[in-house]
Amino acid sequence: MTTDVDVVVVGAGIVGLATAHALTEARPDLSLLVLEKEPTLAAHQTGRNSGVVHSGIYYRPDSLKTSLVRRGRELLNEFCAEHGIVHEYCGKVIVAVEDSELPRLRDLETRAGENGIEANRIGPAGLHDLEPHATGVEALHVPAAGIVDYVAMVDALAAGLTERGHEVRTSARVDALHEDRGRVRVEVGGSTITASLLVNCGGLQSDRLAAQTGDTPARIMPFRGEYHELKADRRDLVNNLIYPVPDPEFPFLGVHFTRMIDGNVHAGPNAVPAFAREGYAWRNVVPRDAWEIISAPSSWKLAAKYWKTGVGEVKRSVSLKAMTRALQRLVPDVTVDDLEPSPAGVRAQAITPDGTLLDDFAFADTERCVHVVNAPSPAATASLAIGEQIAARLLAKA
């Protein structure tokens, strides 16, 4: 059986559906099909993140992350208001727990000014007013940070597409892609779909899909983030969002506390290599995925750069006491008994052949395709703006 459409979007996470939304907004006449290999939408990164609406304070002023988060927040606000999706700008504190972290906190304050983001320096008394159980020598209060239900956004995006006559097809794994003679052929479970244009928003599988139509500048290195959450009677330890001062050399924000839109409080995550692209526990090992990590020179180059950081991440993964000690740096009253397991997530982080973790959003183009090469956090916050950008790139090929 062969189906013919104008555009195929691979992946029904928030970036894929936001891209489909942007395409149909720009060109209502297009016929469009979204393919999702899982039986449900938002099964991986979108449905397993902490639901934070990022302010953009961390990113280089000239980066895509900065510009697309700024635009993405505007679009997110409009979309949530239109569809009745609860979101809240509760604010966050970024806490220096010792004097040695103050220079990095000052750098963040400068970066906030460069990016046009309000960030107010506060001392211990000001921190206590906002987060009575947190402790530190100084902090930045960022009012623009917020929380939202990204799965609700995905559901609304998918509903909008189907209402306009487009199909979002689940349990539709892409077996192969072929690009030739001005068309793209997509093999799905014994069927062939042909399209004029294709967008690959395959997340944890995006590099493998991209490699089928040309060279890709990076491969996906999956990092598992393991979360706990505060038990219901201990959620009062955290009012909103409490973050440490991040290591600028490592593209993760460190163990932190996040109040969710449903009232739960997440604690975590760590960041350890996952030996399966969708490996949400140490026991999840896929031989192909594990061998790819172990055998790649870029993995060893990465390990040589960050082995000390990596050891700490593994310790927090295998020891709840070690995780608790990391959390106690921010909120000393937290104990092992206050924590219970919460679902883990896996971050699709692109790594280049020299062992560099790509810090910015990245895309790769062929004649008829746009591949999303790197779209980790804050991609959910920026998703509607990322969709706009991809739509413009793709429609320029039409």
CATH superfamily of the largest domain: FAD/NAD(P)-binding domain
Named at the architecture level, the CATH assignment of the largest domain is 3-Layer(bba) Sandwich
What is the CATH domain class of the largest domain? Alpha Beta
Taken together, the total number of domains comes to 3
Mean pLDDT metric = 95
* Biggest β-sheet description: 9 strands, mixed
- Name the helicity range: 25-40%
Q: What is the overall shape?
A: globular
Separate helix tally: 10
First-last Cα distance: 25 Å
Helix/strand order: EHEEHEEHEHEEHEEEEHEEEEEHHHEEEH
Would you report the number of β strands? 20
Structural class: alpha+beta
The residue ranges in which pLDDT falls below 50 over 5 or more consecutive positions are: none
The third-level CATH topology of the largest domain is FAD/NAD(P)-binding domain
Beta-strand portion reads 25-35%
Integer-rounded radius of gyration? 21 Å
